Fold these 3 entries.
Entry 1:
Amino acid sequence: MPRCCLSRAFTVSELRKKLRSKKYPFDTIDAVIANFKSRGLLNDGFYAESFSRSRWLTSTWGPRRIKQALHQKGVPEAEVDQATRRVFQDGDDYGKEATFGMSEASMDHLFAQASKQWQRAQSLTLESRRARMVRWLQYRGFNWAVTNAVIRKLEAQHPPP
């Protein structure tokens, strides 16, 4: 096995595609994938959760955008749903009900990031700031309920002068 395939985490689909591009026989590819899975070196569920958590914490991507990226990487739907649920709904709020499909800790993290964006746009009119925040949140994959809740909280905590 070439070292290039072990330099980063892969989904089963990505590894299969990479090995096919290197012209390995199909039975060899299947054997390598089965071997890696049995040894815990290849796990789409773990990959999906790590990817989701990374994109959420470093890029503030929302569930919809993360799901889209994982689907493009060939992660099965069940693994994608489970991973995003763990990252956005479970959080550190054991026993608390998720609001808008997000835990309280996730909403707090999102609000902190959105507040930075809101402050950067303080020279704009209120309508322009709102429109900018809607675009920022929607682009990152948050639904309208989350977007609306964040904007209302921003306006309440940072009223116009």
Entry 2:
Amino acid sequence: MDRTAQLDFIRRLPKAELHLHLEGAVSPETLVELSLRHDAGSLTLDQAQALCRYTDFSGFMMAFKAVTERLRTPEDYELITYRMLRRLAQQGVVHAEAYVSVGVVYYWRRIEFEPLFAGMERARLQAEHDFGITLSWIFDAVRHFGPEEAAKVFRKAAEMQRSHPSIAGIGIGGDERRTGAEPFRDLYAEARDAGLHLTAHAGETVGPEGIWGALNIGAERIGHALSAIHDPELIEILAHRQVPLEICVTSNLRTGCCLHIEDHPLRRYFDAGLMVTLNSDDPVLFGSDLESEYLLAEEQFEFTQEHLRELAANSIEASFLPPERKIVLLQQIESIA
């Protein structure tokens, strides 16, 4: 099958994107627009594009910061949310669960989040009307800011969820080399009791102990889980429990967490029966998108169309969607020829 036919099949597959950062989906062109709104000397397109050129995880974190510091108003968040959803819909994504860095807003910028969220919600509803795509939010705390700051994020999610059911859950991102999962155990229990779903970035820049830690505090889904391959017992547990893994191949390569694509464990996880999903993470900062991740799985890891169909089904099953919508979408996946 040629590349055009491959892309057509991938785009027709109803898919969910489960590991996606809103701020990492801001295109250089949109960043220039934001810079024109807010900077005394605005970024050129070349300068905005240069932010995506880095060599390691620390460089990525600095690029992410450069984007977030230019997101200041509800209108800014409305703009980037709508454009993210429009691009996802073009790839056949029917549902997304996007991380938003509420921890950065509180800890670093010290501004109120509710007005910004109102802009995000306007865009979510407009995109659902325009494209039929749905979106749930995951409030992300920055782990290396510590539990006290994470508590503000998680409790804000619980408070706002009462009037905004689009808020699905919470997670911890940031630099796990500096802060593991254990300090957040009590906060995760509190969030679970408040009715929030629990996710965690884990095993991206540290060994399997990071994933064990995330499981031990109750994480329902694991972001990255790159280092699980080094622990056979952990692989067995992940397979037995069918813990969804939010796999982000291009992200792992771009941050240097995986040096060579042939070393990436995606196919080994799949063959071992793990609940694997494909995701783009920060698509603009990594120069990828979800359809490219599916193409990569086919071209570099020898996934067949039936395998891709299974990956799409996994993304729906692993989502926080209600069961009745999952059934409808799974039936649609099966009907794609």
Entry 3:
Amino acid sequence: MRLSTNLIYQQNMDSVMNAQSRWQDTSVQLSTGLKVNKPSDDPLAASQAVMVKQSQAENEQYGVARTFATQSMSQEESILQNVTSSIQDAQTLIVQAGDGTLSNDDRNSLATKLQGIKDQILNLANSTDGNGRYIFAGYKSDKPPFTSDATTGAVTYNGGTESISQQVDASRTMVINHTGSQVFDALTGDAVKEPDGTTGESDLFKTIDTALTALKTAKEDFPNDTDYTDAIDKTNRGLRNSLNNVLSVRSELGTQLSELDKLDSLGDDRTLTNSSKLSSLVDADWTAVISQYSLQQVALQASYKTFSNMQGMSLFKMNS
């Protein structure tokens, strides 16, 4: 079989180009540290790497969500810690108010202190986060959840009825901010009932108002002697129930914060696992790549020399 000059020339040229292409591909692996720089390098590994990256991106998103959830719940817990202290201060005053020897001035003095505690709790109930959103307003967080009537002092809840939830993992969603009604107007399952067996007052502010009304009323204005003590006892029961409810909410927050720590740990484990998988799929083996690079460089130089020698053959000179 006779080979034409053009065919011989083309075959040698193809050999040079192929060697150069392989050497350049290996050069890219050395510069990037990756053995898969485009899907055609290894279609199977490339497709698996895409899935691993998607899994890692989702894991990172849940990590951000958990950070936000932790900040929100920690802030709420801090506020409720102050609410707890305020309710306990109110309980101390109510114990003092139960003293039957108190004068009207003594009662008025206690009423002033109790009003101050009520104002503190109202201010805490209208707390905002760093972005000006009201924490206990549910999804109506653009306005204060609690308002106080300027004349009667009665406190009304105007916030949302649905607490704010956050998905913190693929199969876990938790409440990160409770509504004002869940915190300040709710009872636990073991709440103390009234002497007649009826359900006690759940509204913390109404409970305090019951005592304020009694303390501000002069002794001689009560129809009978038991009305005052009944009001104080009712307030005492209400404060106990409200305190238990706040502590129950705090217990839930504490449990969830602990769970978030565990989920973060699992997220870190997933990150390491995904990184290891991705590395095994696309990362270059430095020893093998360097060795291959050196061999391909020698092969390319040999191709150049062969092609150069071929151009110097007499056959080409005669055709020139």
